[in-house]
Design a protein that fits this description.
Length: 318
């Protein structure tokens, strides 16, 4: 069991926030197969403060049984406080079951970095402190049932920042204000095919008083055992592994295979997904991707290789 703030998770294995992937219906599919906490895709705080309807619609916490948090992208503490007050002030069903808030300091998109958000903030200690503190103070006062607040970081904006170990003072700052830190063990210029630097997670862990969630290439129980051994991280955030197979959580929990065992298993998961997507009014961008995802799962089971992209277009991975 893993405790983040007052949230008691049934396992250390958390579904990552993923654009075009982590919609309410797919979160349920992963939850039923062993994910212990799930996230919406990244929501721009600026879209909330400007009352942008399509931004509000992306917050789709319709399912009360699935522990779900909202991930926000912010540029400063004022924007954060304003965005949080929008969440708080709304009676929309979209917002009903928000149990955690995460801040994204990892998105490598040039557009995000240009506005001084995401990894552009990793080195800006005073700004970060103001943001972390605003989030921690909000949690103390909010009327929403928020169990945990935290941050997701990369190792730096670039190689130089990683070498300067900018992530270490961030962990110390986080100790004072929030409940956990997710560390995606790559810097923001790194390609997702490059090997993550788990040793940085281990270093960060020696400075932390709060749980550290490791992220980057964790798919199998062997990966998790190695992450534990090498870093002492308390949890793992799973992204691409859960696109390839929502059963990845079953494998991580040691309860069976991390991949589907039969076509019938894939058919049942897709039927469940589509029924939930209808129920929740899931947007076409998610549905289209998941239909393709299930098609790929069937092909893999049949030993076929399909052409075309294996990930939906997104600005979070190079
Ligand atoms: C399709 C896709 C969308 C993503 N969207 C987000 C996002 O909205 N917010 C975020 O913090 N990270 C996002 N990421 C990054 C993942 O959360 C994770 O940090 C990264 O994929 C490394 O984990 P993995 O090795 O398990 O894939 C995305 C990744 C992918 C593949």
């Amino acid at each position: 069991m893993l405790k983040l703030g007052s949230l008691e998770l049934s396992s250390p294995f958390i579904l990552a926030p993923m654009e075009s992937v982590s919609d309410c219906a797919y979160r349920r599919v992963c939850w039923d197969r062993g994910a212990s906490l799930t996230w919406t895709e990244m929501i721009r705080a600026r879209g909330l403060t400007r009352n942008n309807k399509s931004t509000f619609d992306l917050i789709d916490t319709f399912d009360p049984e699935v522990l779900t948090g909202v991930q926000l992208l912010v540029t400063n503490e004022k924007e954060l406080v304003e965005a949080l007050s929008k969440l708080e002030g709304s009676t929309s069903a979209h917002f009903k079951n928000i149990r955690a808030v995460d801040l994204n300091f990892g998105c490598p998109s040039p557009e995000v970095i240009k506005i001084g958000a995401g990894p552009a903030l990793l080195k800006r200690r005073a700004k970060l402190e103001a943001i972390f503190s605003a989030l921690g103070e909000w949690k103390k006062k909010t009327t929403l049932p928020i169990g945990a607040v935290g941050v997701k970081i990369r190792l730096g904006l670039n190689r130089m920042e990683q070498d300067q170990k900018v992530y270490l003072p961030i962990v110390e700052l986080a100790n004072e204000h929030v409940d956990y830190v997710v560390i995606h063990a790559r810097h923001a210029r790194q390609d997702s095919t490059e090997k993550p630097t788990w040793s940085a997670i281990a270093e960060a862990r020696t400075r932390s008083k709060i749980p550290i969630i490791g992220n980057g290439d964790i798919v199998t129980l062997d990966d998790w055992n190695r992450l534990r051994r090498e870093t002492n991280a308390e949890g793992a955030l799973i992204a691409r592994g859960a696109i390839r197979s929502p059963w990845v959580f079953r494998g991580l929990r040691g309860l069976g295979s991390g991949t589907p065992e039969s076509l019938a298993e894939i058919d049942a998961a897709e039927t469940q997904y589509l029924a939930l997507a209808d129920k929740f009014g899931t947007k076409p961008k998610f549905r289209e991707w998941h239909r393709e995802g299930f098609r790929r799962m069937r092909a893999r089971l049949n030993g076929e290789t399909l052409a075309g992209p294996s990930l939906p277009a997104n600005e979070h991975m190079k």
